[in-house]
Design a protein that fits this description.
The protein contains two helices and no strands. With 65 residues, it is mainly alpha-helical. It has one domain. The longest helix is centred in the C-terminal third of the chain and has 16 residues. The structure holds zinc ion (ZN). The site of zinc ion (ZN) has 8 residues, from α2.
Length: 65
């Protein structure tokens, strides 16, 4: 019998809010199985486009100062 676990399709980046990702999507801790959070697994997934964009903006703003 297979155990159904939700596998994320993209990696989101955590933002300032504890319950939301940078792109505004609500975090759902229960949907991420612990073993999916390992770097090895995460590296196989693409970064969320919106999160990536926003990180880029934050980074560019930060290095200007
Ligand atoms: Zn995202």
């Amino acid at each position: 019998m297979k155990v159904k676990t939700y596998l994320p399709k993209v990696i989101h980046i955590s933002g300032d809010k504890p319950d939301e990702y940078l792109c505004g999507i609500k975090k759902d801790g229960s949907s991420w199985h612990n073993r999916c959070l390992t770097d090895k697994f995460a590296k196989t997934l693409p970064l969320c486009e919106r999160c990536s964009e926003l990180t880029d903006l934050v980074y560019k703003a930060a290095i200007k100062e």
